[in-house]
Amino acid sequence: MVSEPINPKPSPKPRQTHIVLSSHPTRFGPKPIALHWGAADPHKRGPIIGTVLNPAHRNVIGTHSGSYAVYRALAVASGQLQSNHRADLTNTSPAAHIGPHPAWSDPDRIVSLDPFGALVGEVYADLCEQGYDIRPSIAITQAHINMPELQEAVAKGRLREDGRIMKLGGDLVVTKAAIEPVWYLPGIAKRLGVEESILRRTLFEQTGGMFTDLITRHDLKVFLPPIGGLTVYMVGDPTTIADPDKPLAVRVHDECNGSDVFGSDICTCRPYLVHGIEACIQTAQEGGAGVIVYLRKEGRALGEVTKFLVYNARKRQEGGDRADAYFARTECVAGVQDMRFQELMPDVLHWLGITRIDRLVSMSDMKYKAITQSGIQVIQRVPIPADLIPADARVEIEAKKAAGYYTEDDVLTEESLANIRGRELSD
Ligand SMILES: [Zn+2]
């Protein structure tokens, strides 16, 4: 018996043509619009063009939408999306204006996103009219968010509904920006302390040869990597974020789907995220602003499969899940303790024009170092309050504190770390 096709309606399949590699000389002459990374004038800097509609216009390696480009390929392959579809960007312009800030024109300060990414419809309107398919890599909108923990904080008197920043009923008014990664390869290489050629070759090899342009097109300096991006949640008036005379709270939070969304109790991620939002609301109500940066770096950028393997290894090791063996188990499975490369993280703070953070809601020594070394002043570091730590997450938090994470408490000795135990796998 023949099974039903996946697509309910018959649709035209993409035309089968011969494949032309982008490294073929005819594909890059006439020369595409040049990019001058770090130029203050967006026209001098040049638009990021990752279109697949006109190969001659492309001036970057890779394409837009990060990892979702692969789903776009499936939609085209299955005939659900016309391969020549061009986005209609009517009414999509930013709901709040960010920048330009001085850091936008410093080629070393921002290397992993396009500072003009939200403004392409405005600053490159003439080129769009000439037929260039220029896509925004940043979108800015507004929303109300509501979390049960915030309502609880109101009930306990820690937060106050002012009817403006926090509406009656606990609705929090936010401005949010979604940002896709745009990597300036010479800048990324410099940040990591490697040669650009080594970086290009390693990116090519470690993706199984996914982007040949990394090797063949050294004239193209910008790469749109197929990875997750980040989201900025802004509380309070966004124009005060860059004002060093107004208080600012910041949490840079790396994605943890298990805790953030599903409330898993093995780590402190969601409680700390909510604590960060609380600090943002309080600071906004004091006349400043709060910023949550949510980065898609699941499981220390090792991914959820590795993360769950580590959970099992932790719970099943001899002596059970112990704080003294917390980092060792990750290293056994992944080869490293962490793959997040916080060196790139401060770029988004510079995009926002931040030069001073009054409350940095994070205990991570790596995040703190990356932020302060990038030239941002941090006045106060805010650890997670002890009463917000789930019982099973003590293994994680005590191990992190012993490894140098910021704390105002005493750090445990190696011996007492071994006595901090988590739940058994089947409990
Ligand atoms: Zn977590």
Strand order of the largest sheet: 2-3-6-8-7-9-10
**Which descriptor suits the 3D outline?**
globular
Give the helices and strands as they follow along the chain: HEHHHEHEEHHHEEEHHEHHHHEHEHH
Q: Give the ligands present.
A: zinc ion
Contiguous uncertain segments of 5+ residues? none
Largest sheet: 7 strands, mixed
Range of strand content:
5-15%
How many β strands by DSSP? 10
On the 0 to 100 scale, the average pLDDT is: 92
Structural class: alpha/beta
Count of DSSP H/I helices: 17
Question: What is the first-to-last residue Cα distance?
Answer: 46 Å
Radius of gyration from the alpha-carbon trace, in angstroms? 23 Å
Helical content stands at: 25-40%
Give keywords.
17 helices; 30% helix; binds zinc ion; seven-stranded mixed sheet; 427 residues; alpha/beta; three-stranded mixed sheet; 13% strand
Describe this protein's structure.
The protein contains 17 helices and ten strands. By secondary structure, the protein is an alpha/beta fold. It is globular and about 65 Å long. Zinc ion binds at residues 256, 259, 267, 269.
Can you give me a brief rundown of this structure?
By secondary structure, the protein is an alpha/beta fold.
